[in-house]
Write a structure and sequence with these properties.
The protein has about 325 residues and is α/β, with parallel strands linked by helices. It has a single domain, classed as Rossmann fold (3-Layer(aba) Sandwich). Helix content is about 40%, strand content about 20%. The strands form four sheets. The chain has a seven-stranded parallel beta sheet with strand order 5-2-1-9-10-13-14, sandwiched between helices. A three-stranded antiparallel beta sheet has the order 7-6-8. A hairpin with a 2-residue loop joins strand 6 and strand 7. The protein binds ligand FO1. Ligand FO1 binds next to helix 2 and helix 6.
């Protein structure tokens, strides 16, 4: 990455956190802003919980639990056991270490913005890369299903994303302002690539694109917008993305991802095993590469591939 390049990456959920960690490995702090979905945020037991901000923060700190994909490695659950014993709601698991993050965020939010809280938590974890919420205003993802309207975590965790998804709505998004970090990144004079991490496009990226003016600015900036498919073959790497594409009557493959982003993408990185799709995807330029990330080396490699692809498109 030459000095004159700056990358904006949009991320949410587990897949997003993995590539975010890879980008932070290969780009210096001044050349990257990670903008994270906050539509999954909610209050539980009086705590403000920001799952996607935590997934990205923990992944960059190398503290994440690689099996669960969320929360912290080496977590203990004494609080949950004691809480359950007293009859507390236990559908949303809060680990003992994770609880510290939610408590401190809730305390700090009394006085400062989610952007500032995030910067404080990241600094205390020794992170130097910029992780910013998509907005500091309240936005709540709601899922309209065949069983009615569900708050995001009810749908995703309590109901395990089983109900049939009809529509997704982002309460408050019309009056929410993109965060200062997102605006600064979009207006950065050296902005050279806008990356969409392999997050669930419908649940984790759509809220960011729904913020007033964001989608239009992505398109006006004349900077390559490159997404990494969260689908390999006809399966999501993790989570309900494939099921949701089917429920939205979109092709359940990387082709469906191209359709969903509907003209926004200049490039789409798909898995090497999906080579055959190259001829049927209209619109974005396609590049194939191994996109499954297990180890940090995979995350670095994919980050380098995406950046190389974006540079090729920027010429
Ligand atoms: N996901 C689950 O499936 N079950 C849980 O009990 C759960 C708890 C949890 C606690 C903190 C946190 O930051 C995330 C948590 N998640 C849990 C994942 C969370 O629902 C997702 O990471 C996002 O909201 C969607 O990507």
């Amino acid at each position: 990455m030459s000095r004159s390049e700056f990358v904006l990456a949009l991320a949410g959920g587990v897949g997003g956190a993995k590539l975010a960690a890879g980008l932070a490995e290969v780009l210096p702090p001044e050349a990257l802003t990670l903008v994270v979905n906050t539509g999954d945020d909610f209050r539980l037991h009086g705590l403000h919980i920001s799952p996607d901000l935590d997934s990205v923060m923990y992944a960059l700190a190398g503290l994440h639990d690689p099996v669960r994909g969320w929360g912290l490695a080496g977590e203990s659950w004494a609080f949950m056991q004691a809480f359950r014993r007293l009859g507390g709601e236990d559908w949303f698991q809060l680990g003992d270490q994770d609880l510290a993050t939610h408590l401190l965020r809730t305390q700090l939010l009394h006085d400062v913005s989610l952007t500032e809280v995030t910067a404080t938590l990241c600094a205390r974890l020794g992170l130097r890369h910029r992780i910013v919420p998509m907005t500091d205003d309240p936005v709540g993802t709601r899922v309209l299903t065949d069983e009615g309207l569900l708050q995001f975590q009810d749908y995703f965790v309590r109901r395990r994303a089983q109900p049939v998804l009809r529509r997704v709505m982002f309460d408050g998004v019309e009056s929410a302002r993109p965060s200062a970090g997102l605006i600064a990144a979009l207006q950065h004079p050296q902005l050279s690539a806008i990356l969409i991490c392999p997050s669930n496009p419908v649940l984790s990226i759509a809220p960011i694109l729904a913020l007033p003016g964001v989608r239009a600015q992505l398109q006006d900036r004349r900077v390559p917008v490159v997404a990494v498919s969260p689908i390999i073959g006809s399966r999501a790497v993790k989570g309900p993305a494939a099921k949701i594409l089917g429920e939205l009557a979109l092709p359940v493959s990387a082709l469906g991802i191209a359709h969903y982003y509907d003209g926004l993408l200049d490039g789409l990185l798909i898995d090497s095993s999906d080579e055959a799709l190259c001829t049927s995807i209209r619109g974005p330029r396609i590049r194939t590469a191994p996109i499954l990330m297990h180890e940090l080396a995979d995350k670095r490699a994919l980050a380098l591939t995406v950046l190389d692809f974006a540079r090729e498109l920027h010429r």
